[in-house]
């Protein structure tokens, strides 16, 4: 089999550094640590990147994809808006605030970035079926990308997900299997299926394709730096589910520095969780290096991973950069969703409510520097999590007769 992963030359263990040939592997044979793509980057310039397409393939020289990736049928995610959030900044007392709004991706979540990487890996390995365990957004991204790429799709979700996310995954075709259990149980089932003949030639984007899939999150770091004028933000707030997104954004920032594409300036990384599923935040506050699994109970279902694989790495990054990890209640999540919508016109899903809620909490507690340039992530569209909005939020302001007198009496 002839493999073309562009600048990626091997898989490397994040724990012991052992190297392996590129393949559909995700765990080190020596220490069982997670594997990730290792690169031999050539000369990469800002001019080369800026001449690329307005999607993640402008960074193809930094990703495990072939040089002709943009010519293949795919969803072309990325290059989403970095919104200067002056209104929200004034409401919270933050001088320079931006929202990286990934609801603008093809299936309205950041998951399109990572799935695009997995599709290329699946093609390389000759897989015919794209699969995943998902808390919702990934399911839609996988079925859409599979449809576009001409692959079969079979995805697995906890059966109690939001109906909008189930509908989005179903509409693109393929099979959607609801499992009576938590996300962690769904993920464990998928790992077992890889070893079964039924899973032969299946690419599980977040299991056996994970080293490639996870690299898609780096494009958020690249875009934020380029959209800021080729510099790093001083503070960034990132939601934590598995923790992979946070660790890969940090990896992306470090790669840009190493390649001389941005100046090496300090940045602080803050992780955000819902209180109902906050194992990383709990470990951070207790000063622990080990993350104890929990059973999720929160409206932020896209972040409801009770045993986050990258949790210890998140702790390392938060402490190394001088950042932190914080959590917010379900009520604070909904309030933050409304605050973002009413100040910036951005309707975030619950995960966006978590990051904005944590932004508010950290600012009010004095942990966040209000004078520092700050970026907060919104990773999905609020239309997918409408069920959390109740009462006056889903009712008209008033119901009146169609007359001017009735209107005057109301306003």
Automatic annotation (TrEMBL):
UniProt-listed Enzyme Commission number(s): 4.2.3.1
UniProt keyword terms in alphabetical order: Lyase, Pyridoxal phosphate
Tryptophan synthase beta chain-like PALP domain: residues covered: 77-380
Cofactor(s) this protein requires: pyridoxal 5'-phosphate
Protease recorded as keyword: no
Enzyme's top EC category: lyase
MF terms (GO), sorted A to Z: L-serine ammonia-lyase activity; threonine deaminase activity; threonine synthase activity
NCBIfam families according to UniProt: thrC
Protein name: Threonine synthase
Taxonomic lineage of the native organism: Bacteria, Bacillati, Actinomycetota, Actinomycetes, Streptosporangiales
